[in-house]
């Protein structure tokens, strides 16, 4: 964890973790506490490359669980813009739902920038920017059950597709591109059933940084 006392403009928090570890809900909980002018949240999900550019596995199925599936050059550039005081505009990711019209999302610079994504600790230039690295952790069976419930209800995926993706794409990617960086995290939040204590810790930390910046300015 870097000291924010030496950071000039923004404090960058990275939140990584496996699929269905609770990253999205954790971010939603933070968003309820802090307004946009205090905390900006930017997600890797909005930087997926077009379907035509994605890797296809040996069975002809697209594998979205690879670092190469993300346009990291643009993602990194946009993080730099926000850290430099510039706003950005993006189309949200619709999880390849042809019936969903993507919304345009505006991101505005803020004292705290939260960067969320599966592979943010794997990508060196993004990891280097982070002042605080958080890893959301859950048991594998719990993550799978959450993903089954989420992807059937929210995304309309068949159970067979979800299980195929989990065993052939999601879990292998977790072991290769996420798990090796778990021990590099400043904070590991276990979310098997709830993360109230971890959330309280991060909210208090963000508030302390904001208070310090107000006094400093």
Task: Provide the fold topology.
Blueprint: E1 11-17, H1 23-33, E2 39-43, E3 55-56, E4 62-63, H2 72-83, E5 88-91, E6 104-107, E7 112-116, H3 124-129, E8 132-137, H4 140-153, H5 159-178, E9 187-190, H6 196-216
Helix pairs in contact: 4-5
Give the fraction of residues assigned to helices.
25-40%
Give the overall silhouette.
Answer: globular
What's the CATH class label? Alpha Beta
Could you tell me the radius of gyration in angstroms?
17 Å
Q: Tell me the structural class.
A: alpha/beta
Q: Any idea of the CATH topology?
A: Rossmann fold
Terminal-residue CA separation: 23 Å
Instruction: Write out the CATH superfamily name.
Output: P-loop containing nucleotide triphosphate hydrolases
Number of helices: 6
Strand order of the largest sheet: 2-7-1-8-9
β-sheet strand percentage = 15-25%
CATH architecture: 3-Layer(aba) Sandwich
Quick one: how many beta strands?
A: 9
What's the domain count?
1
Stretches with pLDDT under 50, minimum 5 residues = none
What letter string, H or E per element, gives the SSE order? EHEEEHEEEHEHHEH
Mean of residue pLDDT values? 92
Largest sheet: 5 strands, parallel
């Amino acid at each position: 964890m870097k000291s924010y006392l030496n950071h000039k403009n923004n404090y960058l928090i990275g939140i990584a973790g496996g699929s269905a570890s609770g990253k999205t809900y954790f971010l939603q909980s933070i968003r309820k506490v802090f307004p946009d002018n205090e905390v900006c949240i930017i997600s890797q999900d909005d930087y997926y490359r077009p379907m035509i550019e994605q890797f296809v596995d040996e069975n002809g199925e697209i594998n979205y669980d690879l670092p190469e599936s993300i346009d990291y050059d643009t993602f990194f550039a946009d993080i730099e813009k926000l850290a430099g005081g510039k706003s950005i505009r993006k189309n949200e990711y619709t999880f390849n739902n042809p019936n969903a019209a993507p919304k345009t999302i505006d991101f505005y610079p803020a004292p705290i920038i939260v960067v969320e994504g599966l592979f943010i600790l794997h990508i060196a230039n993004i990891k280097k920017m982070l002042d605080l690295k958080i890893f959301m952790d859950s048991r594998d069976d719990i993550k799978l059950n959450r993903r089954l419930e989420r992807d059937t209800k929210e995304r309309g995926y068949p159970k067979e597709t979800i299980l195929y993706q989990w065993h052939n794409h999601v879990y292998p990617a977790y072991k290769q591109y996420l798990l090796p960086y778990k021990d590099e995290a400043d904070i590991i939040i276990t979310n098997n059933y709830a993360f109230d204590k971890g959330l309280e810790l991060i909210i208090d930390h963000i508030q302390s940084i904001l208070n310090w910046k107000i006094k400093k300015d």
